[in-house]
């Protein structure tokens, strides 16, 4: 899971093609030395895997780190740092892993079981203020550690010896392999002991054990590199030795850089996706992410249920996706994106099973808004809409502003755009009225989206604390007491309730569109994962 999210043109080193003349052939050595140049839509907030909560940081970490498990080139879970994918014991609550002898950090030190303990303990330690702590909430003693009632050392993660790691869960977690492959990484223990909470604030204050080393990155950097890690256990199969990354927030600039050959992979959005509809170098996939509006429940106006419901009815989601975004995104039907789970009995997709819970009704919007104003004793309201400074979010925010001010008389919306990391920080601090936010899941289970409105969740930025919904989520989490079908039915109840109550207001399921040079192979995209550069190669 992760939060959804100038231009350093001169800083991006683009390697020239080796050889000269149309008939000159490149040698494999030439290709191996040629850098792959790519873009990223925003600045990562951290390189610390224990606290990373935004999509840009997660992307950086996924290219430079590797967990116990990893994903193969088609997005399937396989063994990573662990010797093999293991079967749990004790009714699905104990996992014991052996770490590969060949697993090394970029400085040549062996990866140890303690490195995972260090990372997981810090992730759950309340002092870290990790926005992704609850990915590990099924570990034994998680709640007590998060609440500060027990030391992080009491967490159900132990180094039995240098190469043996054991995870003990409080109850079964069938989707744990997905998390171990995409969202749970080790931290170099000696480096963390040295830097503490400063670990991961720059390339110099972190260390990689994945296919690439992180080089030249700091929190403010607009360009950096991934350089092949010679100590990576599978280094012989990493074909591209260097990847140059440049932050490009404007999709027009991204398209121009690609067209001129200065980058070989880039993200598109809006009109540029439409313009490239017939381009064989474009790859479009629905993402495992949902965009939604968060309303600060601690503020008087946005605490009102009718205000939130009015905002839900004012959004024409089909018009938003087809006319504003124009990028292949799909109109939300509830808080859960399509493809995020299947009924254990019928196999039906969760989104289809729940049905469309959202509708466009401007008349209903005005009625609810007028009722809310009477309840609040106001005639006018000024609300700030917080967004990231990306092209996509700016256009969506402008659409929402126009619709709300048109059908909610007396309402004034001010748009506040900022870099994604700052937006997330303001959201976490509760310093907003309305936040145009999003969530991308790392595993196929609707609970990961529903937790965003759970009053007990660390990622519930709204602070909406509804007793009925929290109780539903408590039952959903009790995997030891419910069958998979019972849990599925509870998930449907929770999704229906939070959507109708507008605890969150779903907008659209994001699509991801990439331009990939025909000279590059091995870059594949799935609903759950972006391309992994360790599988890339020059054709």
UniProtKB/TrEMBL annotation:
Localization in the cell: Cell envelope
PROSITE patterns per the UniProt record, alphabetical: PROKAR_LIPOPROTEIN
Pfam families cross-referenced by the UniProt entry: SBP_bac_5 (PF00496)
Keyword terms, alphabetized: Signal, Transport
Signal peptide positions (record): 1-18
Solute-binding protein family domain span: 77-458
Family: Belongs to the bacterial solute-binding protein 5 family.
Name by which UniProt lists this protein: ABC transporter substrate-binding protein
Organism: Levilactobacillus lanxiensis
């Amino acid at each position: 899971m992760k939060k959804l999210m100038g231009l350093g043109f001169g800083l991006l080193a683009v390697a020239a093609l080796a050889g000269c003349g149309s008939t000159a052939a490149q040698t494999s050595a030439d290709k191996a030395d040629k850098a792959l140049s790519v873009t990223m839509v925003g600045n990562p907030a951290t390189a610390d895997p224990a606290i990373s909560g935004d999509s840009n940081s997660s992307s950086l970490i996924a290219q430079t780190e590797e967990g116990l498990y990893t994903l193969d080139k088609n997005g399937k879970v396989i063994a990573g740092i662990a010797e093999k994918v293991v079967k749990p014991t004790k009714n699905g609550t104990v996992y014991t892993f052996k770490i590969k002898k060949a697993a090394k950090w970029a400085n040549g030190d062996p990866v140890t079981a303690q490195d995972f303990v260090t990372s997981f303990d810090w992730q759950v330690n309340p002092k870290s203020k990790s926005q992704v702590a609850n990915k590990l909430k099924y570990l034994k003693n998680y709640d007590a550690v998060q609440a500060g009632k027990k030391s992080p050392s009491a967490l159900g993660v132990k180094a039995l010896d240098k190469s043996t790691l054991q995870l003990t869960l409080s109850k079964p977690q069938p989707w744990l392999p997905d998390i171990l492959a995409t969202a749970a990484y080790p931290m170099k223990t000696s480096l963390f002991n040295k830097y503490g909470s400063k670990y991961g604030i720059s390339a110099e204050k972190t260390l990689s054990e994945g296919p690439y080393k992180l080089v030249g990155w700091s929190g403010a950097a607009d360009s950096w590199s991934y350089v092949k890690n010679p100590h990576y256990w599978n280094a012989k199969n990493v074909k591209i030795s260097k990847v140059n990354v440049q932050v490009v927030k404007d999709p027009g600039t991204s398209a121009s850089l690609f067209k001129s050959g200065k980058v070989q992979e880039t993200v598109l959005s809006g009109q540029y996706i439409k313009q490239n509809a017939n381009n064989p170098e474009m790859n479009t996939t629905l993402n495992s992410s949902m965009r939604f509006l968060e309303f600060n429940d601690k503020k008087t106006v946005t605490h009102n249920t009718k205000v939130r419901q009015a905002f839900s009815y004012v959004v024409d989601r089909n018009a938003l996706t087809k006319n504003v975004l124009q990028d292949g995104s799909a109109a939300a039907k509830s808080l859960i994106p399509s493809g995020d789970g299947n009924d254990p009995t019928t196999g039906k997709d969760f989104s289809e099973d729940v049905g469309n819970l959202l509708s466009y009704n401007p008349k209903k919007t005005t009625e609810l808004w007028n009722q809310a104003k009477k309840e609040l004793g106001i005639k006018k309201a000024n609300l700030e809409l917080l967004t990231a400074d990306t092209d996509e979010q700016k256009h969506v925010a402008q659409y929402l502003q126009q619709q709300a001010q048109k059908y909610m008389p007396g309402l004034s919306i001010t748009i506040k755009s900022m870099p994604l990391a700052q937006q997330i920080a303001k959201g976490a601090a509760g310093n907003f009225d309305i936040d145009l936010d999003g969530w991308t899941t790392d595993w196929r289970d609707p609970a990961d989206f529903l937790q965003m409105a759970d009053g007990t969740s660390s990622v519930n930025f709204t602070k909406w604390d509804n007793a009925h919904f929290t109780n539903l989520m408590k039952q959903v989490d009790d995997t030891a007491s419910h069958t998979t079908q019972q849990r599925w039915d509870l998930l449907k109840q929770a999704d229906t309730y939070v959507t109708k109550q507008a605890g969150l207001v779903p907008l659209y399921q994001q699509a991801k569109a990439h331009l990939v040079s025909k000279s590059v192979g091995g870059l594949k995209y799935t609903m759950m994962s972006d391309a992994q550069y360790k599988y890339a190669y020059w054709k």
